[in-house]
TrEMBL record:
Subunit: Homohexameric ring arranged as a trimer of dimers.
Protein's UniProt keywords contain tRNA-binding: yes
Lineage: Bacteria, Pseudomonadati, Pseudomonadota, Alphaproteobacteria, Rhodobacterales
Annotated ranges, domain Exoribonuclease phosphorolytic: 11-141, 160-225
Protein name in UniProt: Ribonuclease PH
Residues holding phosphate: R87, G125, T126, R127
Amino acid sequence: MTRPSNRAPDEMRAVSLERSVARYAEGSCFVKFGETHVLVTASVEERAPAWLRGTGKGWVTAEYSMLPRATLTRTRRESSSGKPSGRTQEIQRLIGRSMRSVVNLRGLGERQITIDCDVIQADGGTRTAAITGAWVALHDCLNWMLERGIASGKPLGDHVAAVSCGISKGAAVLDLDYAEDSEAESDVNFVITGSGGLIEVQGTAEAAPFSEEQLIHMLGLARKGTSALIELQKAAIA
């Protein structure tokens, strides 16, 4: 088969992770998955959510937004409508869950880390790029806290990366861009830890149901993709 990008079925787009791009944030990363570009920052707040007060535990949460001209035509800012869309809320929760899965929340004390993910340019896979870059920003934020004695122990337990897979023209492919995603029969997002644990699998059949065999094939592709992404994370923080 021929993909719109002329990549092999198991080939990722070009990926880059640039650290310390935001002067004032405790952690930051500018992540690129091909033509999808996301700016991620991690900020420490000296308070935990009200429902955690007195527990000695902290929290990690996320906010996600897409700039108006991140896409081919202008998208109205969600702030002008007064509330985030259902899609935005779902992605924010996914990013937050993904980061919390590898953080020792008690090691933060009663503090909150907020991960802000702003999509500068979108060409498919914005949530997977955001999660992969968020880990780098979170890593640097936690190191900043450790250096100042406001985090304890080993607050970060593992790497986390994410990638999309799909069924396109009957074949399983890795890391869909928009041209492919918009016409794919199925689209599945995988969030995987450095040790190989599955945090989340989000799958949708758009044109036709996919089989268990196809799902297992996509999981294999996702493991290859996230392994490569985690190696890039390791190189970025070295």
